[in-house]
Amino acid sequence: MSQQKMPKQKPEERVKNFFEVALGFSKEQALLEAKRCLQCKKPFCVEGCPVQINIPAFIKLIAEGKFEEAIKKIKEKNNLPAVCGRVCPQETQCEAVCILNKKKMAINIGSLERFAADHETTTRKITGSNKATKSDKVAVVGSGPAGLTAAADLAKLEYNVTMFESLHLPGGVLMYGIPEFRLPKKIVLQEVEYIKSLGVDFRPNVLIGKTYTIDELFKQGFKAIFVAVGAGLPQFMRIPGENANRVYSANEFLTRMNLMKAYKFPEYATPINIGEKIAVVGAGNVAFDCARVAMRLGKDVTLVYRRSEQEMPARAEEIENAREEGLKFKLLTQPTEILVDDKGFVNGMKCLQMQLGEPDASGRRRPIPIKNSEFILDVDTVIVAIGQNPNPLLYKSTPKLKVNEEGTIWVDENLMTSIPGVFAGGDIITGADTVISAMGAGKKAAAAIDNYLKKVK
Q1: Residue 110 belongs to a domain with what CATH number?
Q2: Which of 405, 393, 402, 449 is nearest to 431 (CA)?
Q3: Segment 283-295 mean pLDDT
């Protein structure tokens, strides 16, 4: 039986809109794909899942047409299935170790997870039934994937959970970082409503480290705190001209476009000043998100990357989608200076041609400049998408919180920080990583907090 492929909008249509690119499996496709599963006695796919979903079990339920039972099985381990079904890199995790991958025909696990989650949202209102029975109050700082997962698991353990978010809407990077055409915001909010229905109290517009300190949270009666504030401090290239008008970090560009809906200006009062020829520097998923958003604004967009396509860290699916949509690639290219006109705006970008040498610490071949290869790229806007660092605000207001050299928060094997009762997980301890990795940290933290609170009584 052949592998079912996810239907998508046509490239020439989707590049003009912000609707979802991948359209989801039909019922018939889901049944056909689920029936391909061999139901292995030793399922490697479960080992490949950071949150340990019982993948064969939920797929078997789909194959039997038991869609409601399938989503219940997924939610035993995963509180954000509709999100994960869309943005989790299954191809390097569960699907990579599927036994059928030996024939390049792995079960399309992510698409089946999305199908089960979407079927639930279209057939009934998603609610939980947990109510806090324990008197212990737990604070979750940050409502991204790590925070949401921890909050949900703690609520299921019947703790009194309050989740603090610095922005006006929950979701963290799911809301401000991932474009609408990859992850519709209504999907994120549906997942959040489910978590709220478990009894989690959501407090928006509260910046921990400013509004309240960690010490003040303890004084308010919280017995444990989980810090899941992500890695939202953008990195820059540190080259001349980087302070010019129309130079954006990926964070600012995507936050304006996703959370503040700048792409719908003037319907939403969030103008963004970009020109007609845009260079996006970087080649991770965030860089491709920026490039594909800019193309949907009708701009001429070039992705600039100092290595070759083989070394790109982005998902193969995102690279393929961008190429189909007409993204230009300027590979083996290193920006050295952003040129600025007499009014302070970007007026081009000076670059060097590169060649690849031996692998560096990342395992990818090191880019080496080619002498006398300078050229100028004709652009009037530059978006820098070369990574994020942890924001130092929280630990600067918490002197007892131990921090590693790279600015991540130090934790022990149980995700406990240097302050008893304060735990941390996700990008704030690892640096920028995947949504599912952060969710795995959230699950581990919830279990560790439960153990801690049982011991301190």
Answers
A1: 1.10.1060.10
A2: 405
A3: 97
